Amino acid sequence: MADAPHLMLYNTLTREKAAFQPIDAQNVRLYVCGPTVYDFAHIGNARPVIVFDVLFRLLRHLYGADHVTYVRNITDVDDKINARALRDYPSLPLNDAIRAVTEKTEKQFRADAAALGSLSPTVEPRATENIAEMIAITEALIAKGHAYVAAGEVLFDTTSMADYGALSRRNLEDQQAGARIAVDAHKRSAGDFVLWKLSSEDEPGWESPWGRGRPGWHIECSAMSHRYLGETFDIHGGGLDLIFPHHENEIAQSRCAHGTAAMARVWMHNGFLQIEGRKMSKSDGNFVTIHELLETETFGGRRWPGAVLRLAMLMTHYRQPIDFSLKRLEEAQALARRWADAKIKLVEAGAATPFVLDPGSPLLDDLNLSPVFAGMSQMAAEGLKGDGEAARSFLGLLDLLGFETIESLSQAASDLGLSLGDEEKWASVTARIAERRDHLAARNFAEADRIRDALLSEGIQLKDGKDPVTGERVTTWEIKR
Ligand code: AMP
Ligand code: ZN
Q1: What is the maximum alpha-carbon separation in the chain?
Q2: Which of 166, 168, 299, 364 lies 20 to 30 angstroms, CA to CA, from 305?
Q3: 130 φ/ψ angles, rounded to the nearest 5 degrees
Q4: pLDDT digits (tens, 9 = 90+) for 391-447
Q5: What residue's CA is closest to ligand 1, atom 14?
Q6: CA–CA separation, 64 and 67 (whole Å)
Q7: Probe residue for ligand 1, chosen from 12, 47, 286, 309 as the CB with the greatest number of ligand atoms within 8 Å
Q8: Pocket around ligand 1: residues whose beta carbon is below 6 Å from it?
Q9: Which among 242, 270, 298 is the end of a domain?
Q10: What's this model's pTM, rounded to 2 decimal places?
Q11: Counting ligands in written order, which one lies closest to the CA of residue 220?
Q12: The Cα angle at residue 198 between residues 195 and 200, in degrees rounded to 5
């Protein structure tokens, strides 16, 4: 596989795009920070799941499916989990209550990820199953003079590392932690962070050289990446918000414990999914869960297939912010329908054969998918006109990008009462809805009502509502049977 085409990746560490060279092409190693399992994941959390799944699939295509190891951890020890366990299972012993919360949430997360067309990572280690590794790294850091014990905590000494802060490029004055000096008087310097802390009787804990306690968050990823990927691996990923402090601190721990020059060679970060310009987040309350979007009718009055959310997410380059809206989902839905329709026809025509990615594909340019999608629509059209090569590329790209079951959208479409082949009718309905919207905007209600009634006489009922995100007027429709 020495002559795999060049994949260019943007590296947060260098702030540059460079050709990706695996340390070992026989085992390309990728680590992505996974969920803290205390509640349903929201669609912002879905972004790294989808983005790094595309990268995983691309690496498997380039280096061979058996030559890529993808690790995504499960954070199942966290104070938010404890709080949730106490709230939801007050009558159970704490450990059982915690297990009930984490098992249920982890199962839901896997179901969500699968519904979004994401492959399972090679390994999904749990923090609670790697406590011994965390203790070992903490011991090594103390032995090497990078950590100290104070007030029931083991803390990393940030001044002990000459180039601490290289990833986020913050200087010490920038560090927000400065504001908390008074609270954290036991710290030698404000940026020092917890590796291990003692637990009270009613908190979960593990025996350690420093007493019964639990790990800090950052140490988990240093321990699990080391166990499964080694001291230095190829790519580490996550959302932008993880650059500081999480990834900075992972780097500090891993490099200082192992005496290495790098934890991962390439650091990749996805941009935020936003609602009205603000990052979607649990704490701000401006979130929609994956489960709600896919399985309930809370968003826009209907369920959305996983493939549509996947496409809606990938329509924007992974490093750019996304402003989420119903309009975006509808756009993705329209494109997905066209592709599903084309796939059914092309597969019937027997076009599926092995596929090799074009070395000039924009996918290889830091996962630049917009031109890939435009190209796919063109290939589908040419394929339908009889161009076998175009059909093959279109079908191959659908699989490579995780849309291998996109034809299942035909089910979603027929639920709406329209078979996939019925594109003319679909187009006519959507055009008349747009026309009616213009009449409404011009306060031309008689015309608007005429269109609504005409559609109803064809069995199509319109429902007016508001985009739950943007507040814009939107109209959905369903077939009356
Ligand atoms: P958390 O559970 O907050 O640690 O987040 C899990 C993953 O989702 C991390 O990689 C975060 O960076 C990512 N993430 C959280 N919120 C968003 C968002 N609004 N947009 C994109 N990624 C996000
Ligand atoms: Zn991490």
Answers
A1: 81
A2: 364
A3: -130, 25
A4: 999 999 999 999 999 988 866 555 555 554 556 676 788 788 889 989 998 999 999
A5: 45
A6: 5
A7: 47
A8: 33, 35-36, 44-45, 47-48, 238-239, 241-242, 270, 272-273, 279-281
A9: 270
A10: 0.89
A11: 2
A12: 150
CA distance 97 to 85: 5
Going from the Cα of 313 to the center of ligand 1, the distance in angstroms, rounded, reads 14
Provide the 10 A C-beta neighbour count for residue 240. 15
Specify if 336 maps to a domain.
no
3-state secondary structure of 231: coil
Contact between 473 and 466 under an 8 Å Cβ cutoff? The reply is yes
Q: Check if the beta carbon of residue 11 is closer than 8 Å to that of residue 369.
A: no
Alpha helices in 385-422 (DSSP H): 388-400, 409-415
Q: How far apart are the CA of 45 and the centre of ligand 1, in A? A: 4
Range of the domain at 458: 417-481
Please give the Cα distance from 18 to 211 (Å, whole number): 46
Per-residue pLDDT of 180-229, as tens digits, reads 445 578 999 999 999 999 999 989 999 999 999 999 999 999 999 999 99
The environment of the single-atom ion ligand 2, i.e. residues with CB closer than 5 A, is 33, 221
The CB-side HSE value for 137 (13 A sphere, CA atoms) comes to 33
Q: Which two tokens stand for residue 139?
A: 């011991």
Cα of 395 to ligand 2 centre, how many Å?
35
State mean pLDDT over 306-324: 97
Given 241, 270, 299, the domain boundary residue is 270
CA distance 424 to 421: 8
Q: What is the pLDDT of residue 1?
A: 47
**From 118, 241, 284, mutation site for ligand 1 pocket: most ligand atoms within 8 A of C-beta:** 241
Taking the CA of residue 42 as reference, the ligand 1 atom at the shortest distance is: 16
- 461, part of any domain: yes
The enclosing domain of 202 has a CATH number of 3.40.50.620
Mean pLDDT (the chain, rounded): 91
According to the model, what pLDDT value does residue 185 have? 84
Residue nearest to atom 11 of ligand 1 (CA): 239
Give residue-wise pLDDT tens across range 65-115: 999 999 999 999 999 999 999 999 999 999 999 999 999 999 999 999 999
Which atom of ligand 1 is found nearest the CA of 33? 10
CA of 274 to the centre of ligand 2 (A): 22
Q: How far is the CA of 280 from the centre of ligand 1 (A)?
A: 9
Q: Is residue 390 part of a domain?
A: no
Given this model, what pLDDT does residue 434 score?
85
465 CA from centroid of ligand 2 (Å)? 40
Instruction: Identify whether 66 is part of a domain.
Output: yes
Nearest CA to ligand 1 atom 4: 35
CA 19 to ligand 2 centroid distance, Å? 24
Could you give the number of structural domains in the chain? Answer: 2
